[in-house]
Each structure stands twice: as C-alpha cells, then as structure tokens.
C-alpha cells in the first residue's frame, strides 16, 4: 500500500464516525492571493510554538506574514521586534482574533494558542473563508473535534493538523514497512511520552499583568482569577485549558499509533495514573497509562506518560513501538526508526531524515518547515487530498487522548461507540465529551 492509498484508508475510517452529520460542502470562493500569488498569513498565539510557525511560514516561497495575534501585547511587541530584526519586515499586531477573521487580505492562519481555543478558532477561520494550520491537539474535547471536521468540509477549507512527523520521509517509510508486512501481523502499538516535567509549584492568584487581555485569553473556558499557574505555559497541566501530556506531546504519538495500526477510535478504554511526585497546582496526572482496545480489528494501543527519571525503550523516550509476529519497529522522536526481527531481536531495516541529534523538535524533513510546505502546497492547489495531516487526524488523534483522560477521571473501564462517538449506556461519561462554553465563545452545534 503506497502513501496515498494509506492516507485515504485512514481518512475513510475517520469519516465513518459521524458521517451522517457531514453536510455536502458549501462552495466558498478560494482566497484571491496577493500580488504575484503571494499568500498572506496570520499567526495566532506567539508565546511558544508560534515562534516555530513564524519560521514555518517565512521558509516558504512567496508567503508573507501580515499579522501577529495574541491576547498579550507584551509578547506581541517582543515578536514584532525580533521579526523586524530577522526578516527586515513589518507586521501588524492584533490582540483580538475576531478582527483577524474579518481581514479579507489574510489567506491563511496558523493556530498556536492554548488547547481550549483550537477548535473554535479553526471553525471561525473556516467560516471566514481562510485555510488553517492548527497545532496539536486539534480539539480540547471529542465533540468539538467533530465540529472542526464538519466546518472544514462544509466551507471547503484546507485544514492541516500540526503532527509534523507525518511529513517525515523516514516515518512514512516506516509506515510503509508496516503495511508491507515487514514485521509481520502488527497487533499492538505503544506510545511513549517520557518528558522531564518538574513541579510547577502553586503561585496563587495575582493581578492581571498590564498588556494582557485575560478575558480573551480565557475565551471558551471557565474564567478564574488570574494566576501564573496557567499563563503562559502551565495551562497544559489543568484540565479546563489543557489535556495533560497525553494531549500535548502525546498527540504526535497517538496519531502515529492510529496511523500505523490503520484504526480509528476504539471501543474499550481504560486508564490509570495519578500524581506521585509533587504537591503542586497541576490537576492532570503526572503518570498515566492508558489502554485502547479494538476487538473488531483484534488490535490494541498502549500509551504511557512518565514525567521524571526513567529508562528509554530501545532508545526511545518520546516515540512509538509497533509489535508484529515477526518483529517490532521503533520510531524514535520525529524522524527516525529502527526494526528488530525474531526472538533474537536482530537489527533490521532502519531510516532517518538525517537531521540534528538530541531532542530538538524541528529537525530533518519531518520538522515543521516540511509540514508547512505541504500545507502551503495544498492551499495553492486548493486540494485537501494532498495534506499529510488532514483535519480528520486532528479529531481522531486528539480524540484518543481525550478518551484516555475521561477513563482516568472516571476511574473505570469505558465502552465507546465509534460510529455515534458516544459511550454505551453511560450518561456520566457522555457529559465529558463536551463542555459548557462561556457566552460569546460557544463552539456552535451547527457550524
């Protein structure tokens, strides 16, 4: 099975769930690009991953960033200054993303804001006729992930999910080996997220810093008094805004587990973990082990999050392992793999994109620049079929993490119906598929 047929198989499986809700695409005229087919971009969320988005856009031919958007004016001014120094170009600053949506000169946006904003921003952008690059996880909960898929289809927009390892030639080669039966009948995938995550302490409440529009930062989520426990990074470790490390770093690995096994959402989920190291402000578990079972396909996914001193597994601390009846395959990081065959673990085929060593995220052809290049090509051709990380991956890989978190929070085995995307006779679990949205920031039922 080649790369294209593999991609189409994955999308077909992902489209089965909720397919009745998908409306025939409404044809929205494609953006009219600027002079000489220049694509004008806006980057939303500039504190962390947004810096890589700037590089990703500016590495593309005839793409220009017009606007930076972030609720924190202090960060905006810092990025504006560094952008001018590096690229000798000016950029518009905007705190309110709704004004970015109203700017008809902007063709594409990238979203690197906190998780609780991803889905609503994507939907608003699709409704505004803009194409989207959205960071992982695509959604904060399962229901809004499905709404992202519906919006992309209805408004005929290009939506790329930020799982950049899908643009790695080495990882693509590894998936092809799995498809070709190199390690035999592959029955299990394992996802690893062993990251150094220290205590965040508990800083308590404090006044909102000057320059920060905290109401806009909060957006769809519950609004609490301001605390540095959340802004600007540690929201990852609070369920109201983030999804823990399985929904942070782990989305790369949940996505690869599903891609490698060629499966969608599971029917049985169990998850166990907790906080064992620090008495800090995190509400998510430090250690988490989740298991997802696919009885119809006779396959299983195991996922582990560990935060501190730990062993590697055949060299991988962040990555995936696929197990077959002839051997196993290890994907280490974002751009290399190794196989081991037979009971003696004889080293087999391996591959690498030849990037930098270490833990750097943006390395090799599988890094952010390559993923942005794939996105821009799809935008220019207005062809979602060539995306390496289409909107369906945003819904499903994020959804796998969400299911594990729900099982952890409820502390029991859950049975899930992938077709209806609801739990089986479990109203308590169903209530956790979505959330209560603040007025003015609701993810719409009908996109």
UniProtKB/TrEMBL annotation:
Residues 205-272, 371-441 form the Gfo/Idh/MocA-like oxidoreductase bacterial type C-terminal domain. GO terms for molecular function: nucleotide binding. It comes from Cyclobacterium marinum (strain ATCC 25205 / DSM 745 / LMG 13164 / NCIMB 1802). InterPro entries: Gfo/Idh/MocA-like_OxRdtase_N, Gfo/Idh/MocA_oxidrdct_glycsds, Gfo/Idh/MocA_OxRdtase_bact_C, NAD(P)-bd_dom_sf, TAT_signal, TAT_signal_bac_arc. Residues 345-366 are annotated as: Disordered. Residues 39-162 form the Gfo/Idh/MocA-like oxidoreductase N-terminal domain. This is Oxidoreductase domain protein.
